[in-house]
Amino acid sequence: MSFDPHLAEFRFGHGLSPDIAPPQSVGEMLRGLTDTDDMAERFEIEPFPVFRQRMVQRESLQKQFKKVRGTDEGKALQKQIKLLKKDARQDHYLWMTAQILRATHSQTPFRERLQGFWADHFTTAGKAGIARRGVSPYVETTIRPHMSGKFEDMLIAAVTHPLMVHYLDQERSAGPNSIRAQKKPGKYGLNENLAREILELHTLGVGGPYTQNDVRELAELLTGLTFKINQGRHFQKALAEPGAETVLGKSYGGGQPHIRDIEAVLRDLARHPATARHLATKLAVHFVSDQPDPDLIGAVETAWRDSDGDLSEVYRALLSHPAAWDPSVSNFKQPFDFICSAARALAVHPRAIGNLSEKHARQRLFEPLALMGHIWQKPSGPDGLAEEDNAWITPQGMAVRLQWAVIVPRLLVGQLPDPRDFVDTALGPRADETIRFAAAAAESRAEGVGLVLISPAFQRR
Amino acid sequence: MDRRSFLTRSAALGCSLAASPLLTPVSFASAPGDNRLIVIVLRGGMDGLGVLAPYGDPAYSALRGAPDLGAEGFVDLDGFFAMHGALRPLAPLWQNGQLGFVHAVSTPYRDKRSHFDGQDLLEAGGADLKSGVARDGWLNRAMGHMPGQSADLAYAIGSDAMAILDGDMPVTRWSPDVDLALSPQAIRLAQLVMEKDPAMSAALADAFQLAGSDGDGVAVQGTVDDMMAMLQDNMTARRSSRYEVRLAKFAAQRLRKDVRIASFSLNGWDTHAQQTRLLDRSLATLSDVILTLKEELKGPAWQRTAIVAMTEFGRTARFNGTKGTDHGTGGAMILAGGAIRGGQVWADWPGLSEDALFQRRDLMPTRDLRAYSGWLLRGLFGLSSAAVQQDIFPQLELGADPQLLL
């Protein structure tokens, strides 16, 4: 079991493309991660600070509106607010298609897969208003630049990000002895949500060596972490619990409350052996198999510990291990990856979906994705998407994939390829006699292409 | 596909249920008893005061205006409460004791009034959000306590996530707007292509069976263009009012057989502006859904069915400046079905005077709505108080039995 270019594309990328050659080595895959991010340049997604201006604008229009409610001026302002919301909504769909186009045209699709992994690991969402459209900008600013650096930098960027602070109820969390809680007792109090998810989901893992007391102490240490719409991340001393807090036996803070104390505990958590174990397992499950080789997990874990969570070293360990190249495939593509890899096999042209109307983006991509079980950027919880294949191999999931595979590709490309050729384009060495027969026997191109996309050889990785 | 072949396949897949001694076709059908529970999640925050108007409360008309009790207006129920006119088609159910309401209730959620948090808590069944929300839903936890298990016990229907049924117990998820329309040849070829992958093959077989059972057949003659036109209609059908009726029809079809629990959601309750029009429409849909369930459950099954419709919070007692209401606290639940001891409103009425309102703005909840769900679970499925108060609804006090069921 060793490196195989086609398996590299299936397992660590978005499948085969008729236009792009598979990588020739692990080294090439890793180098790609630190090369210029040409996909981000070509298919742009708004950075969060720019996106945030939309929220600032919304707030200012709302303030003006309240003063002149009921007048003509008020009506005009309402119209402006409506437009602002509409723009954000439309861009939200365009950013989804930008993701698909990056996956379709990337020379280093491993980068896109890693983004999917980390964006899901740090799942967040806006709960109302324009913030609901902010996930792609959050990922672009917070996840993508940190994917090959130190995990602790990504951790800090993600969990102190305004969207996460908002999503996990950190923004109003106040220490019981904070200035704010003392002034308005009953109105302000501690919220443990972010602290718990940091320990349970983002770092140590649910089986990790922490207690309820650690959750509470971490929650108290996190008080003060909040945000301002016009500024972004913000530390508000009035909310902060005075005094030191002990997390996993180590004391943090104690002087003037400062965000440095929060960063310090996050760095320690990022390097913790339990975090190494948790993330090594999760990476192996995500990329290789629901039941990964324990030796593979061990190798990734060791690389994490030895490098204090240097993600390039972690990926190197993952990709260098023989078990990563076990040709018996088991993992099943999650819905978004299914769509991305279909687009890649079909070499969907940027013009075909880069400017899709909201209506068409919904019909062709967003709604089928939702019916496959993945409601785009509207997670059912901070634990994100299920890793178990069985969560996705469902009757409904299968039905929607089959129907999508027959209907939608035709709307994404000028002309569908001949299914007999498409077998080789999409499956390469995985094509077998059964699928060749099916592709040739189909009554239309659409059905033939659909059958190739629905085949186990295409959907398993 | 028949049940026997499904069982064989489940066993082949190493489905954990295959190890259960209960897994014979006979016990399969009878295990969970004969009672049925349908939970409808009303997303957006239904205005309890607008749906079930306490017009007998002296403070009501100052808040909402005197209700029109004429032929087109509210339907008087008991001289104190009147139901919204859009529910008039349900009046015969009220008279037959198959419709009831619970008023002045809410989840333990307070203060922030966010849909997102409110729905999370409603579906998780927890006591608060301070320590994050549970990963599973209360209805799934309840299944774990039900006597006898079956792979076909519960359905989450529609395209919403239905976190209420998330969890360890197996739940079938299906949305009747998922239609498969393929040529007979493509159906055969799809089965062939999947053949070597047992899990995918089984899921596809179930898909064909489910898609074929919810109204239109899977195999269609026609060009790809015809199919595409049909499917594009389907992809957008969700926005038509008939979509909800299809959900109800599908639920009833399943519940007539072995299924005992079904849940789906109805949207459109976030009535911030022009409430009259919005509420008319959403209540008409709810009324259609309940009547469809009654009709499709056909007699005996309907007699053993309880429907409960619940929402994440009520709305402000007063109208706002745009003829709507904003997010509030206390609200109402709707109960229906042949198993319900209807024709009554369960409420410990708090009153509507300024002082009686929660934070001087919302209807004051006087009981945890989870207590009503808990009593339904006890009555329908014989679950113990301990299971309800400790596992299904943490930190709940069930309190006195409201005797919701016949």
TrEMBL record, chain A:
It holds the Pfam family DUF1800. This is DUF1800 domain-containing protein.
TrEMBL record, chain B:
Pfam families: DUF1501. Transmembrane segments: none annotated. Keywords: Signal. The keyword Signal applies. InterPro entries: DUF1501, TAT_signal, TAT_signal_bac_arc. Residues 1-31 form the signal peptide. The keyword Secreted does not apply. This is Tat (Twin-arginine translocation) pathway signal sequence. It comes from Pelagimonas phthalicica.
